Amino acid sequence: MYARDHALIATPIGAIRVEGDETVLTGIRIGGDGAPSPGNNTAVRAAVEQLEQWFAKEREVFDLPLVPAGTPRGEELRAGLIAIGYGDTLSYGALARVLGSSPRAIGQLCARNPFPIVVPCHRVLGSGGALGHYSGGDGPKTKSWLLEHERRHSREILL
Description:
The protein has 159 residues and is an alpha+beta fold. It has 2 domains: 5-55; 72-158, Winged helix-like DNA-binding domain superfamily/Winged helix DNA-binding domain (Arc Repressor Mutant, subunit A, Orthogonal Bundle), CATH 1.10.10. It has helices at residues 42-55, 72-82, 92-99, 103-111, 140-158; strands at 5-11, 14-20, 25-30, 90-91, 124-125. The strands form 2 sheets. Strands 1-2-3 form a 3-stranded antiparallel β-sheet, with helices on one face. It has a two-stranded parallel sheet with strand order 4-5. The model has no long low-confidence stretch (mean pLDDT 92).
């Protein structure tokens, strides 16, 4: 067992705390206090680097070792969230249909997501494109910023 580590990075949506050990990430939290810190362990430092690249519009897909979900079904649902493409969105209902679940279960999955941005629950919207809730940072305001960041970058790629 490796020692737990954390990093704290400054971003346009506020501080982000990255937690993990040498081999896996155990959590990412939007919000936190303290001085910026890059972390020491391999997995934490990799997450910091990839998040910084994402905010700089140099990365669209993350390749990070995440602590496994508690069940095989949890892994399947997490993979479904990750499969929503950069700059794309799906409604809770549409994602539920794709994953053979219910919109309520998808809402709970998003609310309990320990890896915001990396597991992009911000790409899941309410019916009719409503922003819906967001458990990280300043809630819907943060979700809106994340979506607009990706949309702006997607449009820049097309130009």
